[in-house]
Specification:
The termini are far apart. It is built from 3 helices and 11 strands, in the order H-H-E-E-E-E-E-H-E-E-E-E-E-E. It has a domain at 50-164: Immunoglobulin-like. The protein has a 6-stranded mixed beta sheet with strand order 2-1-4-9-6-7. Mean pLDDT is 85; it is low at 25-31. The protein is of the alpha+beta class. Helices cover 28% and strands 37% of the residues. Bound molecules: copper (II) ion. Residues 93, 147, 149, 152, 157 line the site of copper (II) ion.
């Protein structure tokens, strides 16, 4: 074979290889376009950036009734909530629901000028205080809620919290 011919053949083989790579990637993009854009979309999801849904709960009231108002709470898994707790009664009360606390991810609890981060399992509210608990429910289920001051749950200071699976 003449050297000039050999060189042409090499160029032709090179171009053929490049073209087949380009064509096959175009074909795979056409076949699975969603796959190609799935990765960047997932990276953009940040649950902590969601607008928090505010839910208010009173521990007892000015008449000192031993109840939670309301005593049934429902949340949806994967949404961000700000639970606004208040105690307008003359005695201290607890918001105790350990199984619920294990089924959520706590972003923070803000009380007075203090922000607490990490696992929160129970909150004590003294008379005329408030606290804001920001969290994202993780595990669906129904969890019991009570006040852990002696005699309060027995007198009616109990309730339940349901986490529904994400819609
Ligand atoms: Cu109580």
């Amino acid at each position: 074979m003449r050297p000039i011919f050999k060189a042409f053949r090499q160029i032709f083989i090179g171009w053929f290889a490049i073209c087949s790579v380009v064509i096959s990637s175009v074909i795979s993009l056409v076949i699975s376009p969603n796959l190609a854009i799935a990765a960047p979309v997932n990276i953009a999801v940040d649950f902590t950036k969601q607008q928090a849904i505010e839910v208010k709960v009173s521990l007892s009231n000015t008449a000192n009734e031993l109840k939670f108002f309301p005593d049934r709470l429902t949340f949806e898994s994967g949404k961000r909530y700000k639970l606004l707790l208040s105690n307008a009664s003359a005695m201290k009360h607890y918001f105790t629901s350990k199984d619920f606390a294990d089924a959520i991810w706590t972003q923070n609890v803000v009380a007075g000028n203090v922000e607490v981060k990490g696992n929160i399992r129970e909150l004590e509210l003294r008379p005329n205080t408030t606290a804001a608990w920001t969290f994202i429910p993780i595990k669906s289920g129904t969890y019991e809620l009570h006040c852990s001051i002696a005699g309060h749950a027995e007198a009616g200071m109990r309730g339940n919290i349901t986490i529904q699976p994400s819609a």
